[in-house]
Amino acid sequence: MIIELAKLKFSYPEQADSLVLDIPSWSLPIGEHTLIHGSSGSGKSTLLNILNGLLSVNSGHIEVLGQRLNEMTSRQRDNFRANSIGYVFQQFNLIGYLNAIDNVQLANYFSKSSEKSSVTEEIKALLNSLNIPKKDWQQPVHKLSIGQQQRIAIARALINKPALLIADEPTSALDEENSADFMALLMSIVDSSQTTLLFVSHDISLSRYFTRVESLHDINQAGAVNAD
Ligand SMILES: Nc1ncnc2c1ncn2[C@@H]1O[C@H](COP(=O)(O)OP(=O)(O)OP(=O)(O)O)[C@@H](O)[C@H]1O
Ligand SMILES: [Mg+2]
For ligand 1, what atom is nearest to the CA of residue 90? Predict the structure, then answer.
């Protein structure tokens, strides 16, 4: 298993008496391409931020890539996140005034990857394979299209060759055509690199791209009272 959760409970400190997540048991096998769907506010981003170690839980067992996250210090979790998980955010979180290469390089800078000198070549190959035209590589990314920015966000998530790629509604800002192109591209990359993918979205029509589809409302007992 690449992810194993048991008796996980989480509430935000501001609303300590209101559980956002209460997950008795859930796991994700290696190699799966999984969609978890759920309505807005159902806790999708919260769950992903627990899995990448940004949020720590009130109680429960969380194992990701064989590491017990709730037994780590926040510094250990930061290192774990930089080295082992690729993350595509709901808002892409690119640095607008930096160009594509520098945005991707930043992810590598925070990792302990030993081959930094060859990384620029790797970034260029990755941008090429993601159909970012060469003429755009040196542009500040805020001048690029939303679809291009989203593909740079994938490049950034993949540069450290993570075993697990987590994506938080990366298609929500894209129109239908760009969304279909994006999904096809993402799936071909995770297939060829044998990366396990965990993708969350409110959009159940994306189901056809995945090997496994689950509803957060089935996984999360705290959401049981809210209809989807
Ligand atoms: N930083 C925060 N502090 C306090 N409450 C929060 C915080 N972030 C989210 N919440 C609350 O936690 C619940 C789950 O939010 P979350 O962002 O995980 O939902 P989501 O499923 O990702 O929604 P969306 O589809 O709109 O992105 C919501 O009730 C939200 O108001
Ligand atoms: Mg969200």
Answer: 27
**Residues lining ligand 1, judged by CB closer than 6 Å?**
12, 14, 20, 38, 40-46, 90, 202
pLDDT score of 30: 95
CA 200 to ligand 2 center in whole angstroms: 8
Q: Which of 8, 12, 39 to mutate to test the pocket of ligand 1 (most atoms within 8 A of CB)?
A: 12
The three-state DSSP-derived secondary structure of the chain is: CCEEEEEEEECCHHHCCCCCEEEEEEEECCCCEEEEECCCCCCHHHHHHHHCCCCCCCEEEEEECCEEHHHCCHHHHHHHHHHHEEEECCCCCCCCCCEHHHHHHHHHHCCCCCCHHHHHHHHHHHHHHCCCCHHHCCCEHHHCCHHHHHHHHHHHHHCCCCCEEEEECCCCCCCHHHHHHHHHHHHHHHHHHCCEEEEEECCHHHHHHCCEEEEHHHHCHHHCCCCC
Could you report the per-residue pLDDT of 158-196, keeping only the tens digit for each? 888 899 999 999 888 788 888 888 899 899 889 988 899
pLDDT (tens digit, 9 = 90+) per residue, 102-157?
Answer: 988 888 777 766 565 677 888 998 898 888 899 999 999 999 988 888 889 988 99
CATH no. of 3-223: 3.40.50.300
Would you say how long the chain is, in residues? 228
Q: pLDDT averaged over the chain?
A: 89
Atom of ligand 1 at shortest range from CA of 49: 18
Domain ranges, ordered by start, for the chain: 3-223
